[in-house]
Amino acid sequence: MADKLVENLEEDNSVTMLDVLQEESQLEENAYAVLGASDDRNCTYNKGYIRQALYACKTCCSNKNVRAGVCLACSFHCHEGHELVELYTKRNFRCDCGNSKFGNKECNLEKCKNATNVENMYNQNFDGVYCTCARPYPDPENENNDEMLQCVICEDWYHSKHLECKDVPGDDAYAEMICAACMDKHDFLWKYAAKYSTMYNSSTASCKNGEKILNVETLPNECTMPQQNLSDIKKGSCFWLEGWRSSLCNCESCKKIYTEQGILFLLDPKDSVQAYEEAGKITKHESQYEKGMKALASLDHVQQLTAIEEYNNLKERLKEYLQKFAENKKVVREEDIKEFFSEMESKKRPKVVVPTYCR
């Protein structure tokens, strides 16, 4: 980490304040994709079972037989400094922090919780491993970490090379992926694949140029599940076009199938990760980039020059400070950064007041 920061800082005049603000903006966009509309101050327990960003605490749940997930706020206020596994998001999940899985450790934010959350679903991700190969990510034994994709049904993450597919489409070519195991378990979905997947869609019914698939109007109780036999292509993972869920039949017979197989959530338009991310963008506050640009715009020419000088001074001092970590191959910790800025605060130059009168 220190090597990378020093390397970036050594590229003199290559990083401007605008670059920093733009990079901050991109980091914030990535954070919104993961955190959605998550609250970093209040435990989500009282919201019930919802899609949310989750973390597994390996410090508190070191026993491999215990799987539990905590919300964003609890990761800050109850598990600071602990070894946390970021789980991205999980659907229909209630925060476990402080319940029976944590022994005598209570939640600092919400004391009144049930002993267990019976509707929570747990997979191997809570142990810090993913895919059919059950490896961590990033994998310390693999320098070339393969891209990982999340199945929208089991919500596990898979290396692209373990999807049992010859070709994995580009990110812009599909909206969601269902892994090979889930396609095998819910094999009726193959009936929809010929029309609504990237690999098997027909030219007359597929989604082109990002257009959303629309439902065909039918009678209320009429089943619209395709009936063609696709036994010859029922293999591997499946990549679905945007809007494919809207093509799923809503008749009572089909709803019964979804319920029995535990995938009724596929009919919920708010279930998708995309909907979750959009909710986060709607509720987000003014970004650091927006604040920074407003601050820069409010400065006169002299103040801008002073700000640039201070920024370059900060960059040089940070470069010198981090050089020690790079040379000693040490990890930069949160407390190290706090120490740096604490020293910077104490070394601030006294403000020079220019007299406005003569004697």
Number of helices: 10
Order of helices and strands: HHEHEEEEHHEHHHHH
Q: What share of residues is helical?
A: 25-40%
Q: Report the biggest beta sheet as strand number plus sense, adding barrel if it closes.
A: 2 strands, antiparallel
Strand order of the largest sheet: 1-2
Q: Give start-end ranges of low-pLDDT stretches.
A: 9-15, 202-216, 349-359
Note the overall shape.
Answer: globular
Organism: Polistes dominula
Keywords: Coiled coil, Metal-binding, Zinc, Zinc-finger
Protein name: E3 ubiquitin-protein ligase UBR7 isoform X1
Describe the protein in words.
The protein has helices at 2-9, 17-35, 72-77, 180-185, 190-196, 252-260, 273-283, 288-297, 301-327, 334-346; strands at 50-57, 84-93, 148-150, 157-159, 176-178, 238-240. The chain has 359 residues and is of the alpha+beta class. Residues 9-15, 202-216 and 349-359 have low confidence and may be disordered. Helix 2 packs antiparallel against helix 8. The radius of gyration is 26 Å and the shape is globular.
